């Protein structure tokens, strides 16, 4: 054990490896316990489940989840969702860009558990406390932005928590450096300064949203720049396609891991070196279902949050599940994400395509480093970068897009100009669709 591990392991209770998985009977007991707790102590759940004719005993086995109505994001934002009067140690804001804002509240116990789960994820990539790690974040997640926000809200607890997390825990103990990029990074940028930063710090691990890292990688390839090596890359926060993953692996000579995580739920699943973009679901701590089976909305239950239970929560993500033995030897549920439920376009025949498909297409077009799909059904607009491609090349790209996705060319326009729009919070979006009023 290194010095940092000797300090952090006893404080967090992390042992250095994820540990053996729990038998199904124990998981079922966790689920039943969480359900009963929510029924008895959370006004939102009690009312919801009573109205559905359920009692505090309605959940005994994992399949009993099918009896429970789904939880909508609006419900998670209600004050009556909390299931006890214990002090909230930290309240994590999320989701204000796609509907009502949710404040996920964690007590001390679960905050520590989430931290152990984070360490288990990081250790799965081969990283250890103290190894240099480099994180790319949208500017809105920067320490300065968080500081201003907490100061404006007059929230001293949040101020102290952010300071501790960023400056003490991550910087000193994790040896992590952050690089914040602005939304314009996808528009017109040079990959050079980013790669220089990486080269100077020589990280063992890169943590990033895949959209910025892939845009950076594609831009660097177009510019003919040489990539700095990193042993591992942890992608989180947006869709990673198979072609994006393969290109990151060969560019950075790194093992690439795909993490499915959110503020509301924590760390739900992580891919392994054999599972491609599919994430092994952490079945000890989560129940993951697909509404309607097949490909559909991902619905998650978090077994650990007794303070503010999250049961059968509609994530707004579209995905599919697979089971059976993985190349790594584990027999577990695996999840593949396709994109956000509201962000899709349809072929002439009515088949839906999501961010995953947009990213796969982008990976095939070696001249492009960014692409956004706008307009509306029957009249899509592709905006691509770099912006200065000649009209003939743009038409070729459009023809391939229409061919791949079964669209009539007269229903699609393409251009290298016009702004790429991000989300209100400054993140990149593959889609900028007009919605019917
Ligand atoms: Zn595996």
Features:
alpha/beta; 437 residues; Rossmann fold; binds zinc ion; 11-stranded mixed β-sheet; 19 strands; GMP Synthetase, Chain A, domain 3; 4-stranded mixed β-sheet; 12 helices
Characterise the protein shown here.
By secondary structure, this protein is of the alpha/beta class. Helix 6 (143-153) packs antiparallel against helix 7 and helix 10 crosses helix 11 (355-364). The chain is globular and about 65 Å long. Strand 10 (286-290) and strand 11 (295-302) form a beta hairpin. The model has no long low-confidence stretch (mean pLDDT 91). The protein folds into 2 domains: 3-340, ANL, N-terminal domain (Rossmann fold, 3-Layer(aba) Sandwich), CATH 3.40.50.12780; 345-433, GMP Synthetase, Chain A, domain 3 (2-Layer Sandwich). It has an 11-stranded mixed β-sheet, with helices on both faces. Strands 18-17-16-19 form a 4-stranded mixed β-sheet, covered by helices on one side. The protein has a two-stranded antiparallel sheet with strand order 1-2. The chain is 34% helix and 24% strand. Bound molecules: zinc ion (ZN).
């Amino acid at each position: 054990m290194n010095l940092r591990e000797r300090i952090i392991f006893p404080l967090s209770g992390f042992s250095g490896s994820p540990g053996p998985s729990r038998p199904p009977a124990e998981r079922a007991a966790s689920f039943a316990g969480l359900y009963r707790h929510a029924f008895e102590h959370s006004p939102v759940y009690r009312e919801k489940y009573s109205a559905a004719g359920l009692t505090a005993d309605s959940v005994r086995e994992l399949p009993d989840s099918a009896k429970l109505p789904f939880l909508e994001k609006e419900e998670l934002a209600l004050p009556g969702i909390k299931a006890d009067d214990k002090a909230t140690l930290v309240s994590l804001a999320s989701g204000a860009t796609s509907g009502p804002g949710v404040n996920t509240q964690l007590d001390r116990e679960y905050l520590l558990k989430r931290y152990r789960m984070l360490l288990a994820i990081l250790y799965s990539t081969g990283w250890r406390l103290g190894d240099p790690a480099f994180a790319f974040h949208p500017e809105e997640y920067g320490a300065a932005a968080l500081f201003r926000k907490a100061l404006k809200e007059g929230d001293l607890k949040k101020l102290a928590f952010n300071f501790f997390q960023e400056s003490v825990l991550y910087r000193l103990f994790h040896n992590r450096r952050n690089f914040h990029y602005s939304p314009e990074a996808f528009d017109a940028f040079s990959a050079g300064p980013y790669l220089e930063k990486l080269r100077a710090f020589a990280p063992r691990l890169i943590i990033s949203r895949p959209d910025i890292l892939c845009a950076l990688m594609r831009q660097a390839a177009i510019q003919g720049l040489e990539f700095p090596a990193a042993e591992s890359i942890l992608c989180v926060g947006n869709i990673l396609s198979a072609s994006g993953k393969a290109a990151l692996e060969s560019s950075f000579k790194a093992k690439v891991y795909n993490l499915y995580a959110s503020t509301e739920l924590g760390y739900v699943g992580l891919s392994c070196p054999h599972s491609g973009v599919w994430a092994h679901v952490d079945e000890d701590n989560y129940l993951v279902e697909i509404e309607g089976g097949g490909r559909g909305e991902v619905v998650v239950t978090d077994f650990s949050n007794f303070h503010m239970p999250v049961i059968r929560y509609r994530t707004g993500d579209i995905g599919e599940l697979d089971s059976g033995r993985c190349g790594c030897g584990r027999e577990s549920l695996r999840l593949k994400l396709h994109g956000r439920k509201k962000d899709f376009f349809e072929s002439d025949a009515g088949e839906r395509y999501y961010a995953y498909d947009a990213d796969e297409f982008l990976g095939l077009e070696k001249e492009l480093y960014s692409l956004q799909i706008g307009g509306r059904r029957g009249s899509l607009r592709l905006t691509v970068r770099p912006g200065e491609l000649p009209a003939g090349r743009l038409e070729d790209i459009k023809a391939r897009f229409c061919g791949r996705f079964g669209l009539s060319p007269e229903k699609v326009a393409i251009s290298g100009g016009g702004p790429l729009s991000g989300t209100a919070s400054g993140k990149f979006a593959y889609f900028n669709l007009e919605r019917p009023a």
